[in-house]
Amino acid sequence: MANPRFPQSCISLPNGVQGMLAHAPHLTHAHVSITIAAGYLDEPSTLPGLAHLLEHVLTTAPLTTSSSTSLLTWLAQHQGGLNAHTDDYVTDVHFSIPADSLETAALTVTSQLATPTLSSPTIHTEVAAIDAEWQARQHSSAMQRLSAIATLSDPQHIGAGCRHGNAQTLGHHTGLLHEALTAFHHDHYHGGRVSIAIISPRATEAVTRLIQRMATLFNPLPPNAPALAITPRWGSLPRAKVVGTANAVELLWPLPSSVSRHQFNALSDTADSLNQGHLVDQLADSIIDYHATAAPTGASDAFSLALTGTASQERLDVLAASLSERLAAPLATAPIDHRTVWQPPAGTVQLASAWFVYARQQTLARRLAANTADRPYFPTRDPRPVARWLVYNAPTTFQHADDAAQLAASPHVQRWCGQYGVSDDFASLADTTWAACFIPNAMFLPAPLAAKRCARSGVICQHMQLAQGSWVITVGEGAAVAMQTLLQEAHVNTAIVPQGLLAQRLIQRLTPLPTTPAVWVSHEAEAEVVCHALAGLASRMATRSVQTPATNAPASTAIMRTLSLPGTPTQRWLLALVEQHHSAAFFQQARYDHHLGYVAAVRRSDGAPCSLGYVVQTSEDTEPVGEKLLAITNALWQAAEDALKTPNALKRSLTPPETPLAALIIQWQSLLSGTDQPLHRLGQHSIHSQALTDLPALINTHGHWQTHWLDSAGHYRIND
Fold first, then answer.
1. The predicted structure's pLDDT at residue 391
2. DSSP summary character for residue 591
3. Do the beta carbons of residue 670 and residue 677 sit within 8 Å?
4. Do residues 230 and 89 make contact, with C-beta atoms less than 8 angstroms apart?
5. Per residue in 593-617, pLDDT tens?
6. 6 backbone φψ class: left, alpha, beta (φ>0; ψ -120 to 50)
7. Which helix (H) or strand (E) holds 388?
8. Backbone angles phi, psi at 229, to 5 degrees
9. Under 8 Å between Cβ of 386 and 321
10. Angle at which helices 479-489 and 527-538 pack, to 10 degrees?
11. How many C-beta neighbours within 10 Å does residue 31 have?
12. Where are the alpha helices (DSSP H) in 431-501?
């Protein structure tokens, strides 16, 4: 299975805007990222979170052409989706849209970013939204890591503070915030800091003209605007400790204050190479996994190596010295031209997210290259520590049970063999081998560095932990052998460690998954050996358990109202259409009209049965929130018939998989959820007008409504 490659072009516009475009003929949607070289560390020291607030206001404020429509709702109404991200030195607004709507969407989003309406009511609302987000995330591992990185900074540097922002740091004086946001936008949202990146099926010439039109909407560099320079942030403190949910170490190598774009790309290539297993032999046996990143979130002026597991200080010192030598090489490479091909990292599932990360990295590289300060030499032989350290001390313990606890007999394993049409999505899959396994009601624990060893041998390994169990998939020549080895060396935990926000964990319960182990292989000849290995692993489910520590997170509850239907093709199409039309309205009502919390989303499970879920997360009294959720969904469904009169729009809005690995995963999830046809392959199925007319009767006859509750203590219940 070859890694996809896409022709790429870069352009520079007279007002300073940089353009980057890639051509991907197989896409049905275009993916656009507008990045601004401004972030947390450009904020006024008196207003931590101001850059984050501006990102929120830009995407939720009314458009100049409509007082009742924001970018979020406009994209949803046009079968697209939009999100935004604020990091240390870069803020981006990124969206996906059907390719035939690219030009209108791109100009609409650009106009809002270049000349926004910063209304006081929106500012007030978004301060509350940022505070709710901070409340939901303040005890998360990401926020703990951000605080730890801040302690490693020079105490006089703005990075020595936690920059997320909340109601206390932003204050309640809306007038002053309006002035600060206006000034920040004027100083930073101009052509000298803007980059536009588009990957689409459109011809390169047409997209080039579009980027040129988008660029003209931004003002040129204003006089006395702040420079792009990055001020070195790292202090003399060599390490910081973090209480986390796993034993881990993160090594951070501060980058020189001036790095050219080609040097930064070389660092990114080094990270990709390390992640393909080229570090396995240098690690201690107690290291379970690792991940290298150029410019990680929260420390984008550094190179990161995150190690899961424990190792002696001596082994870590040797590793740090070795990598310091290795990182010196890309920083000394000779200048080269901009790349003419974009190649996402091996194992990319979502092409859009990989493109958005790449766009952010290129904007950051532009900032690093703009520095005029003398480049400090990169210390490769200095006896002092080169890397800064984050050490995660976890109270999580593992306990081994006696072998007598093993099950007496191997469990039944259901199986699927063959392609199930995935080669219709990508012809390259016709000659590819794969193996996939699902373990119900347990957490799959691969052997240390197992995925990296697979990568080094050319086999892609993907692993997903869900509320109802775990699945793992291997792809490439020797996939079945790799899967057999993975299963033989792995353990499973019957206590599933919760991950992510409460709402995310609750949404996972939308999909009904098998209660017995399951296997899918590309070739019949390999099914028996994989089934046998999975049965053996399932029979050892009592050999290891996890004791999860008590959490000090604030009390909160995720609430989800779901509609389930048997899952005929028509019903699946209808729920997809409802999700599309309800997403913007539900977000508006739940988050802004009724203030039910930071999370407010509509999600769908496609299978047999199929489900639609409306979810919020709140720290308020849950009973009134549940009643409001009920009222909102009832009101949405009363107007459902009007929203469902354009079924043809759905066919162009359903995005088929964009990478071969995504096609396999979508098919695997379809098999697990009770259907062998993913929704995007039902394009020939037509929805008759009678089906829309009969929708209320269909819901009343076959629909099943439930309300699900999950609190921060782990208590879960369902009300019919």
1. 86
2. I
3. yes
4. yes
5. 898 888 899 999 999 999 999 999 9
6. beta
7. strand 388-393
8. -60, 145
9. yes
10. 10
11. 25
12. 450-456, 479-489
